[in-house]
Structure prediction request, 548 residues.
Amino acid sequence: MDSTIDRRALLRMAGAGVLGMAAAPLLTACGSGGGTSGDVSNAGKKLVPWPAYVPFAGPTPDAPGDASGVQPLYLRYPDKLVQSVHDTVGDGSKVTALVVTFGPPPKPVGENRFWQEINKALNIDLNMVVVPDPEYGQKMATLMAAGSDIPDIIMFTNLALPHAAEFIQSQCADLSDHVAGDAIKNYPNLANIPTYAWKGMGRINGRIYGVPLERPAPANSLFVNRTALNEAGIPLDWTTEQYLDAMRELTHDRKWGTGWFKTLFGGLGGVTYHAGSLGAPNTWAVTGGHFTHTIAAPQFEQALDVMRKLVEAKSVYPDSLTVSSTDMQSYYHNGTVASINDGFGSVALATLTKINGGFDLDLGRPYGPRPTPWRGPGLFGYVAFKKASPDRIKLLLRICDYLSAPFGTKEYELVNYGVEGVHFTKDADGIKTTDLYQTENNTTLPVKYIGVAPSALYLPGYPEAAKAVYEWEKASLPKSIANPQAGLRSATDAAKGAQLNQIIGDGIAAVVFGRKPLSAWKDVVTQWRQAGGDQVAEELAKEHAATQ
Prediction:
């Protein structure tokens, strides 16, 4: 196989927005359309308060977290678990939830002990509609176009869907009276969700319509095969040239330095790690209230140049933009590629189980002299509820509350590991999963996309991996920067986002593959600004001022 990426494949992906702008605010606004109505901007509106934050007093970690986003580190499983939910959750009724999946489909409930135990704990008949990630955008578009017969719970990923915010305002329940301010205290596990996750989700017309699915501070990160890097003499900290040399060194005998892992729901894709390494703003920069996009930063051009050099050196897995995210992860797990860009959520037991001791997992540190690693929005997505009676909405919130129980609770144990003696056992080293866990877990039955606990860094059976990730966080996060666009809305971005994405994606493809010189990037920026980018910047500035 020729060790170059097919140019036409990249162009197809770029046209789809995979190499376009970073993900838009999770509650995206746009012009009116079928089944949608109303003004969804926040500027000039009375804003309900964010939910009160009441942190869970959990077990003492082996190493503390900090304000930069470093997670508390747990090397041992807590000896004693507490119960966080004391009242009955459900009423025995059927509850339908639509969620994305990145794994194989679950076994039917009659053959699935994990599903049965979740139903029992929640006291409901949970009907999970799981849709593979490549199909989720179309599924959501079809659902919103129909505008009727929608599920009780709908997961919105960070895919920027046209008319999403208007659809939510029209068809979904306003949760403000249930969760804003001190009202959230009726749901203690939801009150434990940090404020940054609610802010990253954003409001609609000043109101709260969803419950966020929290994620740690890091954005997409560079997962590396530390064993291969060590064997090649590649240090933890590296310069730009050392990084490029490393990727060349690791490319041989049908193995490649990197799998240029495509972004799951659009966005800047493989640029993210490089742009942050070289000091580019996280999607947008705000100076004096004015927004400027990262594509105009000189450091962004430098990131494109690094990517161009990776392609020229044939260090990138061939056809990596045409394979599925699952396949590319498998190539990392089996050692075919020594690094991939992936969501930080893949720092998980499931990933380590798939690596199966083949190598030591680690994360690549930024390589530039003045890096600005990009922080994520603080959530993977959020759930919204079908309009219903107050009692029904409270039931759905109780479901989310149970599934969001934090590390150190009995509820967390069930949701994350299943049933003791069936899906896992415990010994002095903590949790040990069984063979059944490989097919019955919260990836195959992704209840974690209905509600999820704030993340703790605990990787049962892999303390060295947990320590490596913790050291990476301490080295990287104090320098990290947030995206000021998080939680804001722009009507122009929603209406013209695909067109703007295509301009950037086509430009990246042309520069990275050498069809145009790096100097041509300035023309791409000009074209993007004239096509609506400047208007997006103005609208974001207005929203930003209104929500401070």
